[in-house]
Amino acid sequence: MSTGNSDEIELSRVRGAGISEPLDATMNDDSIDENNDIMVRTGISEAIDPKKRTFTFGPDPDGVDGVNDAENVKTAGMADIAAETTERLEDSDDKPPDGGFKAYSVLVGSYFTILTNLGLINSVGAIQTYVSEHQLAGINAISVSWIFSIYLCLAYGVGLVTGSIFDKKGPTGLLIVSTVLIVAGLFGAAYSKTVYQFILSFMAVGISNGLSLTPSVGVINHWFSNKKIGAIQGLSTSAGSLGGLAFPLLLRYLYPTYGFSIALIVLGCICFGCMLIGIALIRERVKRQSQEVTSLSNARPETLSKWKKVKKESKVLSFKHLKDTKYVLLIVGAFFAELSLVLIVTYYATYAIAQGVSESTAYILLTVWNATGILGRFLPGLGSDFFGKFNMNILMLLGYNISIFVLWVPFGYNLKVLYAFAALGGFFLGLILSMVPICLSQISLVVEFGERYGLLNFFLSLGNLFGVPIAAVIIGNGSVHNYKMFSILVCVCSVIGTLFWYLSRHSIVGFRLNVKI
Q1: Among residues 516, 484, 354, 437, which one has the least CA distance to residue 6?
Q2: Do residues 12 and 89 share a domain?
Q3: Is residue 289 part of a domain?
Q4: Do 87 and 121 have their domain in common?
Q5: H-state helical runs in 404-448
Q6: What pLDDT, on the 0 to 100 scale, is given for residue 85?
Q7: What was the pLDDT predicted at 245?
Q8: Phi then psi for 367, rounded to 5 degrees?
Q9: Most exposed of 30, 172, 318, 420 (fewest Cβ within 10 Å)?
């Protein structure tokens, strides 16, 4: 966190839960360091403005954009802050260990769980291509697309309820149920013959992914601080690209050798083993507890009735965070950038086939995409610890947009260009799934991260639900012209996503570019 007149600002990661008493908004240089420590302990999630010497509070328990002093309260259009219920850490002074046996054990467990979940999500194109050309060869593309759009919708949308459960109860129960469902779903898909059978099977897989994705990503924030979170989160989510690389290669070998059924059974067994590792190693460090805190006045909180306490503890759906402008802009940016990624991963193989490429070469293109995505998730995450999380994310999205405009849209018919775009696009867009939680952690209380991440994934799921079928309608009969229109759709999504990511950054630091954030 910056002091003096420096323009460098880095948001504090929050280790407390809400403001228990007002702090002086106006400060001198000598008092900044002392108050910075108070900010971390009390849950103020943003930096001091070094020019105005004022606090900027992070999202309050109701998600309202923060305020600093009485004058800023008025500016924010808030007359007062009433007594309200917030969440706190079991030990608000406890800092993440940033290493040690337990922390790295959790990292290993998270890695194998993400390998399963994001690996399957990144491999959906390889499964859809085979199913549409064999088991469901006589079914139109739009009907087939609903199988995998529903799957992707559930894989993200279930996070709406699992995020809050993870914050309150921990990850173990969610991971156990997820393991049962993923095995049942893949084994069921292995013997499916009709559209509705595939839908039911992949619904189970999607719910499984949704149950375990949020805790496997969110638990990293419990054990590692802002100094390491970029590299650590990038490393853990790179497992998704590794799975997206290994699973299609495995399926490509097993399909002709042993058949579709055996291929999915083998895949199910691998996922089962990876999930068992996650169950054994992933542990939360803190849990969310309810606590009444007073307002900025001296009003004493009223005691909740027993029924209200039970109702509060059982609540798993919450949209209160949508009052935070920074958070909403981040959601919109992630929505369109993620939709661009999902559409490419789903249809890039069939796009290549439409250009005259063989089926085996199309699988290789997906392999190249996921291979470069491994570096695209880890290296930007590492760099974000030095240059800023939002800065790195926007920079990589700009690189992705350039590769679309320069390579894919004008020259997508050329095989060499398809390889080049797969390499560059996979690298630049590989960061999306890893940088979203990293950036989100910068504007979120750690005890609310699961809930906010789950709500974000719910909105992403809507894009998956409707985006894939819309793309299928545009592709239609699979002509070269229709796939050209499809590439333009992907291009539009990526541009809109980049714009809103920038607006999210702008809502925090304004137009200043030389700011680490």
Answers
A1: 516
A2: yes
A3: no
A4: no
A5: 409-411, 415-429, 432-442
A6: 28
A7: 87
A8: -65, -45
A9: 30
Q: Give, rounded to a whole angstrom, the gap between the first and last alpha carbons of the chain.
A: 10
Residues 39 and 158 in one domain: no
Q: Using an 8 Å Cβ cutoff, are 425 and 403 in contact?
A: yes
Residue 444 falls within a domain, yes or no?
yes
Give the span between the Cα atoms of 324 and 187, in whole angstroms.
42
Residue-wise pLDDT tens digits, 392-420: 999 999 999 999 999 999 999 999 999 99
pLDDT classification of 93: cutoffs 50, 70, 90: very low
- Give the structural domain span for 430: 101-284+317-509
Per-residue three-class SS string for 75-130:
HCCCCCCCCEEEEECCCCCCCCCCCCHHHHHHHHHHHHHHHHHHHHHHCHHHHHHH
Bridge partners for 88 per DSSP: 289
Q: The domain that contains 475 carries what CATH number?
A: 1.20.1250.20
In this predicted structure, what is the pLDDT of residue 90? Answer: 36
Q: Report residue 317: phi and psi, to 5°.
A: -105, 130
Q: Residue 292 is which amino acid? A: E
Nearest CA-CA partner of 362 in 415, 322, 412, 323: 415
Q: Say what the pLDDT of residue 316 is.
A: 56
Residues 383 and 447 in one domain: yes
CA-to-CA separations, 125 to 213, 218, 243, 362, in angstroms, rounded:
19, 26, 13, 10
In contact, 88 and 289? CB cutoff 8 Å: yes
Domain tally, the chain: 2
Q: Is residue 252 part of a domain?
A: yes
pLDDT tens-place string over residues 276-286: 999 999 998 87
pLDDT over 80 (residue 62): no
Structure tokens at 432: 């999306």
Please report whether residue 17 resides in a domain: yes
415-429 vs 359-387: helix crossing angle, rounded to 10: 30
- Of 110, 342, 359, 122, the closest CA to residue 242 belongs to 122
- 477 and 423 fall within a common domain: yes
pTM summary value: 0.72
pLDDT value for 305 = 55
200 and 299 inside one domain: no
Cβ within 8 Å of residue 270, ≥6 positions away: 250
Domain boundary among 274, 308, 342: 308
**pLDDT of 312:** 53
Question: Cα–Cα distance between 296 and 19 in angstroms, integer?
Answer: 9
Residue 67 shares a structural domain with residue 127: no
Residue with tokens 């105005």: 52
The per-residue DSSP string of 166-191 comes to: HHHH-SHHHHHHHHHHHHHHHHHHHT
Question: Within this chain, do residues 46 and 7 fall inside the same structural domain, yes or no?
Answer: yes
Q: What percent of the chain has a predicted confidence (pLDDT) above 70?
A: 76
